[in-house]
Structure formats: structure tokens, C-alpha cells
Amino acid sequence: MDRHVSNNAWLIRLGDEAHNRRVPVTVDHGSSLVRGADECDGVLIAGGDPLAAVLFARIYRIRAKLFETAFFFDGFLPVHGQ
User: Which of 4, 34, 46, 65 is the most exposed place for a label (fewest CB within 10 A)?
Assistant: First the structure.
């Protein structure tokens, strides 16, 4: 039986403090601001002006450093605009 059950979903807004350099997506904050995020959680990544969905993803790994947190994904689904 799988012990890990994911009940969380997150929004990452790309901009000055969150960057998408292909993979990973990096958030320029210490890990305390993203402490609730966990591996296997779902993420909606949005960007642009006006704000629009870019892709849905599932977190594979989280790498926290002193001033930034990097999210790696094991799968994602691009959102195509109209």
C-alpha cells in the first residue's frame, strides 16, 4: 500500500520571483515559503500579463537552498491558449 497520499495543489506564478528555465522551475525564496509543497503534489504554472495558465505538472523532486527552491517535475501537460 502506498503511504504517500497527495491532497495538495499549488499555483506558481512566473515573474520576478519565479523562473522557468526549462526544468526546473525556481522560486527565489527560502524553503519556508513553500514548506507545504510535497513530492507528487499537483502544480498549475501561470505567467504573462494578463496572467494565463502555462502548464499543469506533478512535482517529482524539491531542492531547497537558502534563498531559492527548485521544483522538478515527472510529468506535465501544456495548456494551449485560444
Answer: 4
- What is the rounded distance in angstroms from the CA atom of residue 66 to the CA atom of residue 50? 31
* CA 65-68-73 angle, 5° bins: 90
Residue 4 · residue 42 · CB < 8 Å: no
Hey, what CATH topology would domain 9-77 get? Answer: Ribosomal Protein L25; Chain P (2.40.240)
39-79 pLDDT tens trace: 889 988 888 778 888 888 898 998 888 888 888 988 888 88
- C-alpha cell belonging to residue 38: 510535497
Give residues with Cβ within 8 angstroms of 75, minimum separation 6.
57, 58
